Amino acid sequence: MKQADFITSLLPLARKAGEAFRINPVVILAQAAIESGWGQSDLSTLYRNYFGITAYGKKNVWWKGESISLGPHSLRFRVYDTPGDSLMDYARLIRHAYPSAADASNDPPTFARIISCSKYISEVNGDNRTAYRQALVKICRQVGKIAPNDSVVASLS
What is the DSSP letter of 119? Predict the structure, then answer.
């Protein structure tokens, strides 16, 4: 899937999740792009999990409790019925577990700094917080070019 196709196909879902949880859809799409390899990961293509959300926590309206392990030493990851369920569950998670990041989502560089320094990013799993933050801001710029009406943030210019 091309990057532009990824953005345009998920944009309506990101807008819906963003509206429901007061999160900028640009950062939702940027994080989905990073976590799913622009929709190319097995987790996203086969199980509609665009954010690598693990199967911990309580079931909710968007996650019915189904999970998958991708290998013998893998964590269990959530399996979603639809891509929209994945985006809604992600937005719910960010709004409730990382409210300061959610509140900063209209300033993507600040959102990226907050989320990259949070428990959402796991350096134990090889994540590099600085590289993640930089990639998130860069992808927000890309998303903003394709979805200019959602890129309301002057700090991306």
Answer: T
**pLDDT by residue for the chain (157 residues), tens digit each?**
689 999 999 999 999 999 999 999 999 999 999 999 999 999 999 999 999 999 999 999 999 999 999 888 888 999 999 999 999 999 999 999 999 999 999 999 999 999 988 887 765 555 688 888 999 999 999 888 887 665 544 344 4
Task: Tell me the CB-side half-sphere exposure of residue 4, using CA atoms within 13 A.
Answer: 3
User: CA distances (Å), 11 to each of 28, 88, 91, 133, in order?
Assistant: 9, 12, 14, 21
Residues 6+ apart with CB under 8 A from 69: 75, 76, 77
Whether 32 contacts 14, CB under 8 Å: yes
| Rounded CA separation 153/143 (Å) | 12
